[in-house]
Design brief:
The protein has 409 residues and is an alpha/beta fold. Helix content is 34%, strand content 27%. The strands form four sheets. It has an eight-stranded mixed beta sheet with strand order 3-6-2-1-9-11-12-10, with helices on both faces. A six-stranded antiparallel beta sheet has the order 14-15-13-16-18-17. Bound molecules: adenosine-5'-diphosphate (ADP), aspartic acid and magnesium ion.
Length: 409
Amino acid sequence: MALIVQKYGGTSVGTAERIMAVAERVKRWRDQGNQVVVVVSAMSGETNRLIKLAQQIQQCPEPRELDVLMSTGEQVTIALLSMALQAQGCPARSYTGAQVHILTDSAHNKARIRDIDAARVRADLDAGRVVVVAGFQGIDAQGDITTLGRGGSDTSAVAIAAALKADECQIYTDVDGVYTTDPRVEPKARRLTRVTFEEMLEMASLGSKVLQIRAVEFAGKYKVPLRVLSSFEDGEGTLITFEENIVEDAQISGIAFSRDEAKLTVLGVPDEPGVAYQILGAIADANIEVDMIVQNIAAQEETTDFTFTVHRNEYDHAMEILKKTANTLGARQVLGDPKIVKISLVGVGMRSHAGIASRMFESLAKEGINIRMISTSEIKISVVVDEKYLELGVRTLHDAFGLEQAAAA
Ligand code: ADP
Ligand code: ASP
Ligand code: MG
């Protein structure tokens, strides 16, 4: 008998029919003798609908109130799925995050899970029930409802799997696994049967929304066996493995991209100690996360230019702060561009292969795509390009690195 945690995302529970189909799948696993905990998201579009509703009342609602509102989406699904299971003769019980003590910090809208009391879930499993838990939500030490950031049900599932020491955490979604890139952008993308945990972490952090980054981090920390599969068809999906180099010849495993980028530049700041700190310190104090940073070397003059990227949602706020700092520093000009995207090549095989970056730059150049910023780490190379080149850039690189063919084993 195995203990399995299954998570079903928004599209997988988008209608009453879909919920009945999920119940059938869950029941099948239970009838095979497994103990099953199910974590669900809100029905597709529901979280967005709730956010829009809030914005009709107040442009920037208080994060605490937004959490009270957004958490209702998942509460609807747990009740419906429990009913669907019971209707099919499968004993089941639904729980909100608070009821199973998913304790988080108090960072509303982006809370982190601190602890889960698994006793209640275990008692139900031992009594032969399927346990249905609301994803995305928790409760802080004061008893306030919190949510875990968009896509956070993945993290709920992995955290519950870790707390229960589950045999596997299965993430059911609307694609049948992790692909070489988002199949909606490159239809020739290929499903990976396995991807290393390290690569998955990079892909998630670089914008692949198939798994929330914190879910991958959690899986790494607690060594939770994780699999991504389709709720629409049967198949083995993609296993996130903790083995090191799984396919020796594959230099690149995938291409991630993020449309949520914006770039800010300050021209003519003094080239002296403390300037980077002054510029970025003010941004950090406003709780804005900075991604890429480029500082030019000063030429003859004693001034330099400084560019960094932030999440597009925070562009206006960051710009306001940067203008103030630029004034204080006596900088020449502040420029910004909120219409940029980041495309990244990811692969553990990159470590042992030279020339990946030049091949990347060459293929983008051939298509006339101008690279605005570059950043690298041991297993990834990212470029910032204009938004209009996203699709072309991804497809060009997918082709240039032969990703549609199965890698030689
Ligand atoms: P869910 O609602 O089930 O959580 P998401 O929309 O969050 O589903 O994640 C699934 C989506 O992730 C897919 O529909 C796909 O468009 C997108 N995606 C992005 N990158 C990848 C990738 N490398 N492999 C598979 N899917 C990806
Ligand atoms: N319903 C939440 C969202 O749309 C959480 C999730 O789907 O994982 O972001
Ligand atoms: Mg998701």
